[in-house]
Design a protein that fits this description.
There is one protein chain. The protein is mainly alpha-helical. It is built from one helix and no strands. 94% of the residues lie in helices and 0% in strands.
Length: 141
Protein backbone atom coordinates (compact mmCIF):
# COMPACT_ATOMS: atom_id res chain seq x y z
CA UNK A 1 0.00 0.00 0.00
CA UNK A 2 2.76 2.25 -0.60
CA UNK A 3 1.55 3.04 -3.98
CA UNK A 4 1.27 6.84 -4.45
CA UNK A 5 -1.40 6.65 -7.09
CA UNK A 6 -3.68 4.80 -4.71
CA UNK A 7 -3.21 7.43 -2.01
CA UNK A 8 -3.68 10.21 -4.50
CA UNK A 9 -6.89 8.73 -5.79
CA UNK A 10 -8.14 8.05 -2.25
CA UNK A 11 -7.38 11.66 -1.34
CA UNK A 12 -9.15 12.92 -4.41
CA UNK A 13 -12.14 10.71 -3.60
CA UNK A 14 -12.29 12.03 -0.03
CA UNK A 15 -12.02 15.63 -1.24
CA UNK A 16 -14.82 14.99 -3.73
CA UNK A 17 -17.02 13.41 -1.03
CA UNK A 18 -16.28 16.35 1.32
CA UNK A 19 -17.08 18.90 -1.36
CA UNK A 20 -20.30 17.05 -2.17
CA UNK A 21 -21.28 17.06 1.52
CA UNK A 22 -20.50 20.77 1.82
CA UNK A 23 -22.50 21.54 -1.31
CA UNK A 24 -25.45 19.45 -0.10
CA UNK A 25 -25.36 21.25 3.25
CA UNK A 26 -24.94 24.69 1.60
CA UNK A 27 -27.84 24.34 -0.85
CA UNK A 28 -30.63 25.19 1.71
CA UNK A 29 -28.54 28.09 3.06
CA UNK A 30 -27.99 29.41 -0.47
CA UNK A 31 -31.73 29.05 -1.21
CA UNK A 32 -32.56 31.07 1.95
CA UNK A 33 -29.95 33.62 0.96
CA UNK A 34 -31.58 33.91 -2.49
CA UNK A 35 -35.03 34.38 -0.85
CA UNK A 36 -33.60 37.06 1.44
CA UNK A 37 -32.03 38.79 -1.56
CA UNK A 38 -35.39 38.78 -3.39
CA UNK A 39 -37.15 40.17 -0.30
CA UNK A 40 -34.51 42.86 0.09
CA UNK A 41 -34.89 43.74 -3.60
CA UNK A 42 -38.67 44.04 -3.18
CA UNK A 43 -38.17 46.18 -0.08
CA UNK A 44 -35.74 48.44 -1.89
CA UNK A 45 -38.13 48.78 -4.85
CA UNK A 46 -40.97 49.67 -2.47
CA UNK A 47 -38.78 52.19 -0.67
CA UNK A 48 -37.72 53.67 -3.98
CA UNK A 49 -41.38 54.09 -4.99
CA UNK A 50 -42.76 55.22 -1.62
CA UNK A 51 -39.92 57.14 0.01
CA UNK A 52 -39.76 60.22 -2.29
CA UNK A 53 -43.52 60.96 -2.05
CA UNK A 54 -43.33 60.46 1.71
CA UNK A 55 -40.42 62.86 1.95
CA UNK A 56 -42.33 65.37 -0.20
CA UNK A 57 -45.37 65.02 2.07
CA UNK A 58 -43.20 65.54 5.14
CA UNK A 59 -41.59 68.59 3.54
CA UNK A 60 -45.01 70.03 2.61
CA UNK A 61 -46.26 69.36 6.13
CA UNK A 62 -43.26 71.23 7.51
CA UNK A 63 -43.98 74.16 5.19
CA UNK A 64 -47.66 74.19 6.22
CA UNK A 65 -46.66 74.12 9.88
CA UNK A 66 -44.32 77.05 9.23
CA UNK A 67 -47.12 78.97 7.51
CA UNK A 68 -49.51 78.21 10.36
CA UNK A 69 -46.88 79.34 12.85
CA UNK A 70 -46.43 82.60 10.93
CA UNK A 71 -50.21 83.11 10.82
CA UNK A 72 -50.43 82.40 14.53
CA UNK A 73 -47.63 84.88 15.24
CA UNK A 74 -49.43 87.50 13.14
CA UNK A 75 -52.65 86.81 15.05
CA UNK A 76 -50.87 87.15 18.38
CA UNK A 77 -49.30 90.44 17.27
CA UNK A 78 -52.69 91.68 16.09
CA UNK A 79 -54.33 90.62 19.34
CA UNK A 80 -51.63 92.34 21.37
CA UNK A 81 -52.20 95.50 19.31
CA UNK A 82 -55.94 95.31 20.03
CA UNK A 83 -55.22 94.77 23.72
CA UNK A 84 -52.90 97.80 23.68
CA UNK A 85 -55.62 99.90 22.04
CA UNK A 86 -58.22 98.73 24.55
CA UNK A 87 -55.83 99.51 27.39
CA UNK A 88 -55.19 102.95 25.96
CA UNK A 89 -58.96 103.49 25.62
CA UNK A 90 -59.42 102.52 29.27
CA UNK A 91 -56.65 104.94 30.26
CA UNK A 92 -58.31 107.72 28.27
CA UNK A 93 -61.69 106.86 29.82
CA UNK A 94 -60.15 107.02 33.31
CA UNK A 95 -58.64 110.42 32.56
CA UNK A 96 -61.97 111.68 31.23
CA UNK A 97 -63.78 110.32 34.29
CA UNK A 98 -61.27 112.16 36.48
CA UNK A 99 -62.01 115.37 34.60
CA UNK A 100 -65.77 114.75 34.85
CA UNK A 101 -65.37 114.05 38.57
CA UNK A 102 -63.54 117.35 39.05
CA UNK A 103 -66.16 119.20 37.03
CA UNK A 104 -68.95 117.47 38.96
CA UNK A 105 -67.34 118.44 42.25
CA UNK A 106 -67.23 122.07 41.07
CA UNK A 107 -70.86 121.93 39.95
CA UNK A 108 -71.93 120.32 43.22
CA UNK A 109 -70.04 122.98 45.20
CA UNK A 110 -71.65 125.69 43.07
CA UNK A 111 -75.13 124.22 43.56
CA UNK A 112 -74.56 124.01 47.33
CA UNK A 113 -73.39 127.61 47.44
CA UNK A 114 -76.34 128.73 45.31
CA UNK A 115 -78.76 126.80 47.50
CA UNK A 116 -77.30 128.30 50.64
CA UNK A 117 -77.48 131.77 49.09
CA UNK A 118 -81.03 131.15 47.92
CA UNK A 119 -82.03 130.01 51.35
CA UNK A 120 -80.56 133.15 52.93
CA UNK A 121 -81.89 135.52 50.29
CA UNK A 122 -85.63 135.13 51.01
CA UNK A 123 -84.89 135.56 54.72
CA UNK A 124 -82.96 138.78 53.98
CA UNK A 125 -85.62 139.91 51.59
CA UNK A 126 -88.36 139.24 54.10
CA UNK A 127 -86.47 141.10 56.85
CA UNK A 128 -85.79 144.05 54.52
CA UNK A 129 -89.42 144.31 53.56
CA UNK A 130 -90.37 144.32 57.25
CA UNK A 131 -87.94 147.17 57.87
CA UNK A 132 -89.34 149.15 54.96
CA UNK A 133 -92.85 148.60 56.18
CA UNK A 134 -91.90 149.83 59.63
CA UNK A 135 -90.44 152.92 58.10
CA UNK A 136 -93.46 153.41 55.94
CA UNK A 137 -91.89 152.61 52.66
CA UNK A 138 -93.09 150.10 50.23
CA UNK A 139 -90.56 148.17 48.31
CA UNK A 140 -91.07 148.07 44.62
CA UNK A 141 -91.20 144.68 43.17
Amino acid sequence: MTEPIFWLSLSLLLVAVSLTAVLIAAIPALQELARAARSAEKLFDTLQREFPPTLDAIRLTGLEISELTDDLNDGVKSASGVVRQVDQSFSNARKQLGKVNQGTQGVVSGVKAAWATWQRYPAQRHSESLEYQKQGFKKES
